[in-house]
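Hello,

I think I submitted the S-adenosylmethionine job twice by accident. Can you confirm which output corresponds to this input? Input:
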Amino acid sequence: MPVGSAFEDLAARYDAWYDMASGRKLFDLELRCLRPLLSGTGPPRLEVGVGSGRFATALGIEVGLDPARAPLDLAARRGVRVVQGAGEQLPFADHGFNVVILVVTLCFADDPAGLLDEVRRVLRPGGSLVVGLVPGDSAWGQAYEEKRRAGHPFYQGAHFLTLADHLGLLGRAGFEVVAARSTLRQAPMDAPVDEEVREGALSEAGFVAVAAGTRWRGGRDEQTTRATR
Ligand SMILES: C[S@@+](CC[C@H](N)C(=O)[O-])C[C@H]1O[C@@H](n2cnc3c(N)ncnc32)[C@H](O)[C@@H]1O
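Support: Only one job matched these inputs. Its output is below.
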């Protein structure tokens, strides 16, 4: 992420979206997608690309990392233990976290594949990765792409990835999807309405949450095998 990004310069504006009527409704639907995928998990948990900490706080994630300082200050005020850094070079020891979450962050990373390699490194064997994403091939992804082209500050640095792109990146990094939930099958609009959250990863949905574990082979976690070889 380039220095001087909109997330740094306009952190208060980004954060204020969560308190608008439309932001509150979308946030609630997205939390209803993510929360069940985290049930039964325990600390330590990390959000990479934590921003101002809205999801971390609502989901009980203790540690948050982001390259941008200004949103981290807001997250810290919400009680998140914050660390400044890039997801592609996580400043954490191997296998230290039970859970890592990424919420609409992979599409902003310079190197999403490298970021996922790092996530895998810091997850303990048997740990979980939970990814919240906007499929670039959904109506919502296309609406955000149009905003990006029109110069919207927050979308300037985004490369909207399709659902298949995300699943391909996860598979290549050695993650296996174990559960998924989708919402926002309604058209993008200023006044979103309540909606059912469905099981599964639906590319027509505007928000998909995916839980993945590290792949097992022959009864052993590949990550453990690699780490001990
Ligand atoms: C759309 S915001 C999402 C923030 C938060 N997860 C949320 O949903 O409110 C994307 C975040 O990714 C962060 N980001 C950009 N590049 C990153 C990278 N290479 N590693 C980690 N985070 C990054 C940005 O600074 C920004 O806070």
